[in-house]
Design goal:
Helix content is 30%, strand content 20%. The chain has 5 helices and 8 strands; from the N terminus they run αβββαβαααββββ. The protein has a 4-stranded antiparallel sheet with strand order 5-6-7-8, with no helix packed on it. The protein has a two-stranded antiparallel sheet with strand order 1-2. The longest helix has 21 residues.
């Protein structure tokens, strides 16, 4: 028997992650419009951290059916990352997935509170300029200087050309 998530848990997992994959190396948006104005595409999945059924990845026999189908045992992923974590449970452990979930929810809340995107992809949405002495400057919504002295986050950069 498989302990699937109730519909409300699935919907809430997606919303708590900002409708983005919880994998910090992905963070792909998982929902968007179709050509039909009353429809939307969803490529996100509510994945089980500990498997929903015996024999599944990261299955924990000590959990009850209620615990396996509870929101605490779920994580929002895109379909690709959902497949990836289930095919390699040794790499993608319970602790790893729980940390992804925690970080994704914290990032979604920070973005909601600040009113601007803070995902890794948006932070690197920038122009890269190679400078002398092997230094690299990345400017955009957030700026980073990488040079002999290390990495410095300097905030938005206003350039005069």
């Amino acid at each position: 028997m498989r302990d699937d998530f109730p519909r409300m848990v699935v919907e809430t997992l997606g919303r708590r992650a900002g409708m983005r994959c919880s994998n910090p190396k992905c963070r792909q948006i998982t929902s968007g419009p179709t050509e039909q104005p009353d429809k939307a595409i969803n490529v996100g999945v509510a994945a089980h951290i500990c498997a929903a059924a015996s024999g599944g990845p990261r299955y924990d026999a000590s959990m009850t059916a209620e615990q396996r189908s509870d929101i605490e045992n779920g994580i929002w992923l895109c379909q690709k990352c959902g497949k990836m974590v289930d095919n390699d449970p040794v790499r993608y452990t319970v602790a790893c997935l729980a940390e992804w979930k925690r970080r994704a929810e914290a990032e979604a809340l920070a973005e909601l509170e600040s009113g601007r995107p803070i995902t890794t992809a948006s932070m690197i949405n920038a122009a890269v300029v190679i400078q002398g002495q092997g230094a690299i400057q990345i400017s955009g919504p957030n700026a980073v200087n990488i040079g002999p002295g290390g990495i410095t986050i300097v905030g938005p950069v206003i350039r005069k050309d």
